[in-house]
Specification:
The protein is α+β, with helices and mostly antiparallel strands. It contains 8 helices and 10 strands. 28% of the residues lie in helices and 32% in strands. 22% of the residues are buried.
Length: 250
Amino acid sequence: MADTVYKLIADDLRGLIVSGRLAPGDDVPTEAELAQRWNTSRGPIRNALATLRHEGLIETTRGRPARVTARKAHQAVDVSIPFTRWARDIGAVPGARTQEVSLRRADAEKAALLGIAEGDLVVDVLRLRLLDGRLTMLERLTYIEPVGRVLFGVDLDTVSITEYLEEHGTGSADVDHEIDAIAADETDSRLLEVPLGSPVLRLRRVTRDAAGRTFEASDDRYLSDVVRFTVSASGRSRQGDAYVRPLGSA
C-alpha cells in the first residue's frame, strides 16, 4: 500500500510541475502538508520527493521545503539528431549566434581526428546555440575543407548545418560520441556567460559519411543547468568493445 501511495503522490506533484501550476522556484508543499493531504505517514512522502528529485524536477535543501527546479532539456546521445531538429522535437525554439567561420590549417589534434595530414585546410565554426532564447551550448565544429567550404555561402544563424550539408551531398552515416565534464575556458566563460572554471558538459563527436570518410569533428560545451544527457544502448560497440570504459583503459 505504501508503495502505491508514494507513486500517487509523485504523480500528483509531477502533474502540478509539468502543467506549470508549480513553477520553477516555487516551494513544494511541506512533508507535513502532504502527509495531511494524503492521510499518510512521512515515509511515502519522502519516497515521492526522492523520486522527483531523481527526475530533476525538484531540489531539496536542509532546513527548507523542496523547491521546483528549472526543467532540463534531455538529449539522447546514443543517436545523432541535429540540434535544430532536437529542439523542435522537444517543443523549443532553436537559435544560433555564429561567432566565427574560418579557413585555417589543421593542427596535429584536428588532423588526427579527421584522418588528414597536419597542415591540410579545414573549416572551423564557432557558434552559440540557444533554446527559447536561453544560452544552451557552444559549438566548436571542424570540417575537412571540401565539405566545409559550402558554409561560407550561407547565414549559419538561420540553418541547421547538418541538414544544410545533407542538402549539399554530405550526409552523416556513422557518428562516435564521447561525453565528459570539464572546466569552462575563457571562450566558454565569455560566450556562455558563466564563471571561468565552472563545470560544463562536453560532447565530442566524430562524423563519417556513407563511404566511411571522416568529415566533421566537433566539441560542444553544454550548460549543465539547461541540458541533461540520456543514453539508451546495448553497451557494446560494433567491434564488441564496451562503450563505457574506465579512464586510462585502451
